[in-house]
Specification:
By secondary structure, the protein is an alpha/beta fold. The chain has 2 domains: 2-120, 3-Layer(aba) Sandwich (Rossmann fold), CATH 3.40.50.720; 124-269 and 302-318, Dihydrodipicolinate Reductase, domain 2 (2-Layer Sandwich). The chain contains 9 helices and 15 strands. The longest helix has 20 residues, at 294-313. The model has no long low-confidence stretch (mean pLDDT 90).
Amino acid sequence: MLPLGLIGLGPQWSILYKPALQRLRPRLGVRGVFTPIATHAQACCQEWECELWDSLGALLASPEVRAVIVLDANWFGTVPVEFACSHGKPVLVSDALADQPLRLRELARLADDTGTMVIPDLLHRHSPATTRLRELLATRLGKPRSIECEVVVGPTGRLPGFLSDPWAVALDWCHAITGTVPLRVEPTQSTDAGESLLVQFGPFADRSLPPLARVTLLRSTCNLNPDSGGTPVARVRVVCERGVADLRGPDQISWQSGGTQADERLGGERSAVELLLDLFARRVRGGLIPLPELELGVRSQEWGLAAQAALASGQLCLLERR
């Protein structure tokens, strides 16, 4: 069993991470919890038969804890990750650490200098439908040519998780699918239902025609549905070299290529959180598993800020090519 420490117990714990960890027993377990509000942790400690720590530093220094998950950073900001870096302890971040990319860039440099693995919880990359889409792109559909992506956000305009900006989530999802970075964003006509951006991506490695995306942000009067699996990407159409795929929510995908078409419901597959936790655990144990680290999370946050600037000015905004 890989022993984990939990820092904070925000809404993400009960809705997403607790059910996922329960399903991943006995491969993963909770060895310790630290939170400023002890009453929140008592039930967790009883269920997992683990210790409630009264010091963040002591939890991170404990040899009984191999890695930690930051579930609520409101009380701590970037301190848990800084402490984790000082102890060389791998950390999975499931909450927004800071709104300023400059501060996060400093944190990414600290993680790199200390050789500490810091993984942002980009759950939208790991939904069953997104995972299946990647398989189809590699085997049946070919490179993406255009993407129509709708993201749903609640009344606060913010999202749970490391990337709280819905534009950052949408651009990061498109980047994960295309494998190329967004070069510029341009606002299009908005409606009462939401706002839209046109996104030009960089060329593929073989210099073939770069993909285009239209990202639409839909505002809802309700908070993100727990059944969404932690991802706000609600509906997507991807037109590819050899076919088309349509995604509806985290676990439905229909596609057609040549004379073949299929409508797949993937509710029986592992959730995005389960897959992320499994990949994180394998990395902690020394596996060569590709997972985006903090540097990419910071870049995606910067893309989101550029999208907001384009919408505010009504003008095209160029993104830095990295």
